[in-house]
Amino acid sequence: MPRTLTEAELNHGFSVLCGAAAHGLRCPFNGANGLTVAVVDKLARRGRIRITLSRQNWRRVTILRGPYAGKSTAPDPQGEDITLVIDHTGKHRPGEAGATIPHSGRAQPSAPQSIDPTWGNR
After folding, report:
1. Distances in Å between the alpha carbon of 2 and those of 10, 38, 112?
2. Residue 85 in contact with residue 59, Cβ under 8 Å?
3. Which residue ranges make up each domain of the chain?
């Protein structure tokens, strides 16, 4: 049975993440400053943070509550697409469970075009 996290552990983890987000640093690795997967997951499920993961397991945390609300840790430097979101609704793919994924800033493909020039004249 998993150990129950204390409020002190959760508050400490939240402070570590807020510090990284306030300075736009990369999200701390598991084990750094007492941060664990369990702490980060619990904070997301309580609605205090939102986590997005992209390829190569790049984790970006957005603070949702408190004085640093709206601040995020550093984005994926490769600009890879988001593959997983963890928030108060649980774990899901982008676009599912009401997730709002910010535009990555990369060019989007154009709408499909017919290669038959007479297509529109039918």
Report:
1. 15, 9, 50
2. no
3. 7-101
